[in-house]
Design brief:
Blueprint (H helix, E strand, L loop, with lengths): L5 E4 L9 E4 L5 E4 L4 E4 L5 H30 L1
Antiparallel strand pairs: 1-2, 2-3, 3-4
């Protein structure tokens, strides 16, 4: 099965949270309510530096994905 790059997640135990799941490497879940990121990967120390620079870009992409999806429901 081919998954899209981003998925929206919801959970009634966290009614204010809006989750976006990034399904490609590096996989993570971001809670847009508080920008908390949970990585679904284990990283070597040398990879962490590269991730720091890429993380900001991925979070921007996740937020843009959410905004695009919400705008489609509003139309």
């Amino acid at each position: 099965m081919e998954l899209p790059k981003f998925l929206l997640g919801d959970n009634t135990d966290y009614p204010a949270a809006i989750f976006v799941v990034h399904t490609e490497y590096p996989r993570f879940v971001i809670n847009l309510e508080n920008d908390e990121v949970e990585w679904l990967e284990e990283f070597a120390r040398e990879d962490e530096r590269e991730l720091e620079s890429e993380t900001e870009n991925l979070i921007v992409q996740a937020t843009e994905f959410y905004d695009r999806e919400v705008s489609r429901y509003e139309d």
